[in-house]
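User: I'm putting together a small comparison set for a docking exercise, and I want a reference complex before I start. The sequence is below, and the ligand is zinc ion. Could you produce the 3D structure with the ligand included, as structure tokens?
Assistant: Of course. I'll restate your input first, then give the structure tokens for the complex.
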Amino acid sequence: MRRSAQIGLALLLLLLFSPALARVRAGQQYDSTSGPLPVFELHSGFWTNLHHTLYHEARLRTAAAAPEKNDKTTEPTLKVAPEAKTALTTTEQKAWDDAVAYYEANYARKDLLFTTELIQLKNQLGDFEDCDELSGRMKKFCDAGLPPKLTQVLEAAATVYRAHYWQDHDRANRRWIMRVAPLVREQGVGLSERLADIYQARWPRAKIRVDVTAYANWAGAYTTLDPLRVTISSLDSRNQGAEALEVLFHEASHEIAEPVQEAIIRECRQRDKAIPRDLWHALVFYTTGEVIRPVITSSGASSGDQDGNGYTPYAVREGLYQRGWNDYYKLLQRFWQPYLNGQATFDDAVARMVSQL
Ligand SMILES: [Zn+2]
């Protein structure tokens, strides 16, 4: 039921900040979309959030158990959410620990972005967000068809998650959605058209599903293709404020930037050069940042950088170029920027970048 589609912003605000209603909402399934936004369909789904929380905790335990083997030393440590202090009963603690142990044994060493099993599980759990269960015991259509042991683990953990964590996570997700929604409403269509134009691609006709979750992967957001789905952490410090808009469009660009990736590969083959693994990704960061910058600056949605110079794109802010992409950054400024300014063609820009590699 798409109930909240009809709920106005005022009512949504009331719902979010009324403690009595929040208590009622936390205990039941409800519509998890934020209303009719263009371009994106933003969800705060129970099972997807539980899944990523368990994965997050399992990874923390794995890292704590074998710190020297943890190669992701750059993985950010997220703030410990306030609900972590909530005391669990012995039974609850056991159910939760069992679930985390299951994730530790089966998933913690697998990558959310590159493991088909984890991608399918995430998508499946997203599809069942309106269900209170995954086994279909009470409602047949709520049989998610997952392996019995996993179903049992998730359902047991769900009771604990619902009682202790979900309310805070859902509130954080909804707050994140509410903050980015006005920008999406105002700029979403224009930005999607501009980006599709730049990449010489078609923007997907269907709205892009975005799962907003307390925890996502180590990067704070990731995108899986076929079907195109984006997962964004609402608690990650890198995804806050007006920057959330850039994260949304960066992630969505993963699919539509394919022609750039193909063009880079084609140019490299013609010149018999090794294909630079991350150039297309640096290009997507650069492009999204440059396209978003004037929009955010003119909307006044950003407080600007320390010097008050308007919006600072994600890759600059988070130091991605300094950490190994500096040569790409120079190439992008020199050859890709003229294309963005309308002073070069797509093919020439890519060819020039590759010729300088
Ligand atoms: Zn990316």
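The chain has 13 helices and four strands. Residues 250, 254, 281, 284 surround zinc ion (CB under 6 Å).
User: Thanks, that's exactly what I needed.
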